[in-house]
Amino acid sequence: MSSIYVLEPPTKGKVILNTTHGPLDIELWPKEAPKAVRNFVQLCLEGYYDSTIFHRIIKGFIIQGGDPTGTGTGGESIYGSAFSDEIHSRLRFNHRGLVACANSGAPHSNGSQFFMTLDKSDWLDRKHTIFGKVTGDSIYNLLAIGEIETGKDDRPLDPIPKIKSVEVLWNPFDDIVPRAVPKAVNHSESDAENKDSKLKPVKKLNLLSFGDEAEEEEKQLAAVKQKIKSSHDVLNDPRLLKENQQMEESDINPQ
Length: 255
Hints:
Number of strands: 9
Distance between the termini: 55 Å
Order of helices and strands: HEEHEEEEEEHEHHH
Pfam families: Pro_isomerase
Family: Belongs to the cyclophilin-type PPIase family.
Number of helices: 6
Function: PPIases accelerate the folding of proteins. It catalyzes the cis-trans isomerization of proline imidic peptide bonds in oligopeptides.
Catalytic activity: [protein]-peptidylproline (omega=180) = [protein]-peptidylproline (omega=0)
Largest sheet: 9 strands, antiparallel
Mean pLDDT: 80
Low-confidence stretches: 192-218, 224-235, 240-244, 246-255
GO molecular function, one term: peptidyl-prolyl cis-trans isomerase activity
Strand order of the largest sheet: 3-9-1-2-8-6-7-5-4
Structural class: alpha+beta
Radius of gyration: 23 Å
Helix content: 25-40%
């Protein structure tokens, strides 16, 4: 196993993911995967990964995170669109702890999501960009997350492991300037808040930048409907009931 590590190029840069299962120390390969590392480091500096979950765990294979919506279908890169793969001959999926870009199943479709290997996975070679590795004793924290029980779609069961905060100890790029961007809606936390309202129809908001505005619109619509309902309860005038009924039938459904 030691010869495998010798073949790998030297790392430059270090980030710590503080998770609910302890820290994950990640060393980076900015020379071999400059786009991927720049994307990861800048998102870390911007707090993009704070309070996000590891939404997918496959025992003995990978844990996956980096999606602020918690659904496994969200997240975007700092470039505004998907960025290209960076495959390096000296970086291969030949041991556990490797950190790589998660894509949509097609080449050059990288965004904000990433995964970490729990074992050798050489069939992934040349299909995903490797840009870092988990080092030191923190590898045991990674393995502990990998043992969490999962349900449908490999989603971990409660308590879902989470990235609490991120520290960039060594930024390999001097020119990175974090953007002032609105924090994305974390649907993994909102799922827990909605457990008591399972019988009520809940509108799914898969928006990133406009999630807060959409939620505010939902609250305003709910308030209007509540006022109409209270009028029915308090007043027994048949004309008012008929008038409100016609108004409800002609009301536009929220999108």
